[in-house]
C-alpha cells in the first residue's frame, strides 16, 4: 500500500519521531524501504549517547534495555504510530512525511540505466552514418569512456553529440587548423584543446578513423590530429623523399638525385600537388639510411622513394594517401623487429601497401646468413600482411635492421632504374 503522508498528524509525529536523536532510526527504515524490504525486525545503533537513549524511551514509553547498543523493533514503532494517530498508515508513511519520498533502489537503477542508454544514442547514430567508426563507438560504450569523462547521463549525451558532430566532419580535406575546425564545427575554437574531455573523445575516434598508431606526448597528439587533416603545427611534421617531382624545388632535387624534405604545410597548402610518377611504383622504407644509400648509389636514376623515419607522420600519410589515390603501388620495407612490425601495421591501417622484401622468407634468409645479429627484444607484435613473419621473429629471436639488407634493397632499385 502506498504511504499517504497527508493523513499524518505532523505536530504529533514530529514530537514522537522527528527528534534529531532518532535520525538513525529513520535512516534504517528508509534504507529498508529503498530496497523493498519490509519494515519488520530489529534495528540497532552501536554506542548510543544518553540523548539517543532518552529519545527512544519517549517513543516507546519505556526505558530500552541497557548495554553498549540500542535496539528497536520496527513493528513496535509502526504500532505506536498507528495507535497514537500520529501516522494512521504506519511507519512507512511517517518516514515519507519526515524525510521525503523514498525512491525504490531497483527503480532508480532502471531509470539510471535508461538514462545512460539514451545518453549513448549519438554513438549508435554515428556508427550507422560512418560504418568505419562502428567498432570504435561500440568500444567506447563497452569501456565506459563517456561515463568517466562526463559523470552524468545529461553531460555524457552532450559530450557524445559534440564528438559525433566532429567525427562526421573528418577527415578534413583540405587540411585546416584544429582551432578553426573546432570553431566551425563545435562553436568554440578551444573545444578541442588538450585536456578537455571532448578532445580526448574526438582524438580517440580520429585514431580509429585514420589508423594512427598508439602513443603519447604533445608531438604524438599533434601527429594524430594531423592524420585526419587537423593541424596544430604545419611545419614539424615532415616526410623524407627521393626523386619526387611536381614542384620546382622537388624537380631541382630530383635532377640532382638528392633527398628532399616536404612539410605538412606544403602538402596541406598545395592540395593540387600531384607527383609526376604517381602512377608507378613507390618504394617506402623505415630508415633514412636507406634513402641516403639509394641517393649515393643511383642518384637521379633511382626510382621514387619515401621514408617514414619511424612511425608514419601526418606528412608521410598525407603524401602516401595522395600517391595511392593517383594510382601508385606502394611497396614497403622496414626493420625486422617488433617495433618495425608495429610501424608496418600502422601504415597498413592508413594506406594499402605490398611487402618489399618484408616477408617471413626474407627475414629467415637474412637472419640465417648475416653474422652477429643483435637479439630481438620487446613485446611481440602481429604481422597481418604475412602472419608467418611474426612467428619467424619469435622463433629465430634476432633483429635484422634495414642496413643489414641494404645491398639487396639497392639491387632491387638498380633493376628498376631507367637505362641511360
TrEMBL record:
Residues 261-413 form the DUF2399 domain. Residues 39-245 form the Conserved hypothetical protein CHP02679 N terminus domain. It comes from the Bacteria. This is TIGR02679 family protein. It comes from Streptomyces pini.
Amino acid at each position: 500500500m502506498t504511504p499517504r503522508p497527508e493523513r499524518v498528524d505532523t505536530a504529533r509525529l514530529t514530537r514522537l519521531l522527528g527528534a534529531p536523536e532518532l535520525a538513525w532510526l529513520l535512516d534504517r527504515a528508509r534504507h529498508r524501504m529503498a530496497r523493498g524490504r519490509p519494515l519488520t525486525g530489529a534495528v540497532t545503533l552501536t554506542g548510543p549517547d544518553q540523548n539517543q537513549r532518552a529519545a527512544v524511551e519517549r517513543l516507546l514509553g519505556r526505558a530500552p534495555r541497557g548495554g553498549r547498543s540500542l535496539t528497536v523493533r520496527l513493528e513496535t514503532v509502526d504500532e505506536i504510530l498507528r495507535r497514537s494517530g500520529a501516522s494512521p498508515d504506519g511507519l512507512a508513511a511517517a518516514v515519507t512525511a519526515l524525510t521525503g519520498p523514498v525512491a525504490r533502489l531497483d527503480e532508480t537503477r532502471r531509470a539510471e540505466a535508461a538514462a545512460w542508454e539514451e545518453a549513448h544514442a549519438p554513438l549508435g547514430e554515428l556508427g550507422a552514418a560512418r560504418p568505419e567508426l562502428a567498432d570504435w563507438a561500440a568500444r567506447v560504450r563497452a569501456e565506459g569512456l563517456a561515463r568517466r569523462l562526463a559523470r552524468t547521463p545529461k553531460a555524457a549525451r552532450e559530450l557524445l553529440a559534440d564528438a559525433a558532430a566532429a567525427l562526421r566532419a573528418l577527415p578534413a580535406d583540405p587540411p585546416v587548423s584544429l582551432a578553426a575546425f573546432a570553431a566551425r564545427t563545435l562553436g568554440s575554437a578551444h573545444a578541442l584543446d588538450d585536456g578537455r574531455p571532448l578532445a580526448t573523445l574526438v582524438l580517440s575516434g580520429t585514431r580509429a578513423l585514420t589508423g594512427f598508431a598508439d602513443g603519447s606526448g604533445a608531438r604524438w597528439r599533434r601527429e594524430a590530429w594531423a592524420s585526419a587533416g587537423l593541424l596544430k603545427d604545419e611545419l614539424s611534421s615532415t616526410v623524407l623523399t627521393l626523386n619526387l617531382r611536381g614542384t620546382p624545388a622537388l624537380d631541382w632535387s630530383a635532377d640532382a638525385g638528392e633527398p628532399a624534405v616536404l612539410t605538412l604545410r606544403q602538402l596541406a597548402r598545395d592540395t593540387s600537388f600531384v607527383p609526376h610518377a604517381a602512377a608507378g611504383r613507390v618504394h617506402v622504407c623505415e630508415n633514412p639510411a636507406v634513402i641516403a644509400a639509394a641517393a649515393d648509389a643511383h642518384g637521379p636514376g633511382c626510382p621514387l622513394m619515401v621514408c617514414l623515419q619511424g612511425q608514419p607522420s601526418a606528412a608521410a600519410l598525407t603524401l602516401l594517401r595522395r600517391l595511392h589515390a593517383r594510382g601508385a603501388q606502394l611497396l614497403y620495407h622496414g626493420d625486422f623487429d617488433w617495433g618495425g612490425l608495429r610501424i608496418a601495421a600502422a601504415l597498413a591501417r592508413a594506406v594499402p601497401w605490398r611487402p618489399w622484401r618484408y616477408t617471413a622468407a626474407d627475414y629467415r634468409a637474412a637472419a640465417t646468413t648475416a653474422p652477429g645479429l643483435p637479439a630481438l627484444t620487446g613485446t611481440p607484435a602481429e604481422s597481418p600482411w604475412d602472419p608467418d613473419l611474426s612467428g619467424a621473429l619469435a622463433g629465430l629471436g634476432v633483429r635484422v635492421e634495414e642496413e643489414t639488407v641494404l645491398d639487396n634493397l639497392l639491387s632491387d632499385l638498380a633493376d628498376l632504374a631507367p637505362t641511360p
